[in-house]
Amino acid sequence: MPCKVNTSFDIRKLVIYHNAKGKSYKEIAALLNISKSTVGDIVKRFKCEDRIDSIPQKDQPKKLDVRDERKLLRKIKKDPTLSAPKLASELLNETGKNVHPQTIRRALKHSGYKKPYVSEKNRKKRLNYAKEFILKDETWWNDIIFTDE
């Protein structure tokens, strides 16, 4: 993947100047020692957006790329009991990327992983809780206030 380097403001001004004088992209590229595609991009931006300056990047680059997200998703599908801190430490060991467990959770959510792991112990607790209230009669439920935001 090629490295993107911003050209200086002075070089961009020279590209526009030589383009206005009628020189070809190839001639301008050879004269200023930049690629022909860079010359084309500068001229196109000037014609379409009427600007020479570059717009600074707004957000911080992502710590996890698409490849890392797929790797995390494979691991969590293979073993749904893995916690986010455990996945973060494994990612640090494998790729050297130090990320917060919340970043792992956010990446899994972004990848479409929705169902959290519920342990067998918690499943039994939930079932017992539901069974406790299913046999209550209707008069008991009339005294309960249900709230919703």
Task: Sum up the structure in keywords.
single chain
Mean model confidence by pLDDT: 86
How would a textbook summarize the main sheet? none
Distance between the termini: 50 Å
Radius of gyration: 29 Å
Please bin the fraction of helical residues: 55-70%
> Number of DSSP strands?
0
Strand content: under 5%
Shape: elongated
Order of helices and strands: HHHHHHHH
Global structural class = mainly alpha
Name the poorly predicted regions.
none
> Helix count, per DSSP?
8
Describe the structure.
- The structure is a single chain.
- The protein is an all-alpha fold.
- Among the domains are: 41 residues; 45 residues.
- Helices cover 60% and strands 0% of the residues.
- It is built from eight helices and no strands.
- α1 crosses α3.
- The longest helix is centred in the last third of the chain and has 15 residues.
- The model has no long low-confidence stretch (mean pLDDT 86).
